[in-house]
Design goal:
two-stranded antiparallel ribbon; 179 residues; Arc Repressor Mutant, subunit A; elongated; 41% helix; mainly alpha; 7 helices
Length: 179
């Protein structure tokens, strides 16, 4: 009887590609809030726009949109009128609503990294860290930049879905349905 060793195939590990993380992630809530405000900003000031129309024109999932609209009303960016003929309209002129204000109205204070604002309360190295001033400066630059851009600057009368349909009607094999 022979005692030959049988070589089993070696299973090679495949490298998993991990997406790069960002210091600050602009989440869906901010994205959807800006989309909703941009659409409303381009409508006549006295026009009430239904939640369903915003949802359809800006392709925002209904479960997100309801929460976001409540937050925007609470922050004073929108007025809400209830009832069958109700809807939403801007609560202040679009030129007075900065992207920074929208971000902070939905997510809270703009912060690239927690140690910039919370210092030793967040990180034991904050008092001796050589990076903290870099992140603090970057946060100030970003905040100033977002403060300069208003919802009025990027208002969107038609909505993303109609513009997508115009740009590439065959992108999905068919034109998306938009009212």
């Amino acid at each position: 009887m022979s005692t030959r060793r049988v070589r089993l195939p070696v299973r090679r590990r495949t490298a998993t590609v991990t997406p790069r993380s960002s210091i600050m992630n602009v989440g869906r809530r901010v994205d959807y809030a800006v989309r909703a405000l941009c659409y409303l900003a381009a409508q006549p000031p006295d026009r009430l726009v239904s939640r369903a129309e915003i949802e359809r024109r800006q392709n925002i999932p209904p479960h997100f949109l309801s929460k976001i609209l409540r937050a925007l009303v609470g922050a004073g960016f929108l007025h809400s009128v209830s009832g069958v003929r109700g809807g939403f309209r801007l609560g202040r002129p679009p030129r007075e609503i900065s992207l920074r204000a929208v971000y902070e109205g939905v997510e809270g204070r703009l912060s690239l990294i927690d140690c910039v604002d919370r210092r030793e309360g967040f990180c034991c190295f904050a008092g001796v860290c050589t990076q903290i001033d870099v992140w603090s400066g970057a946060q100030q630059v970003l905040g100033a930049y977002l403060e300069k851009i208003s919802i009025g600057d990027i208002a969107d009368r038609h909505g993303l879905m109609p513009r997508l349909r115009e740009q590439s009607p065959n992108a999905w094999g068919h034109a998306p349905k938009v009212a």
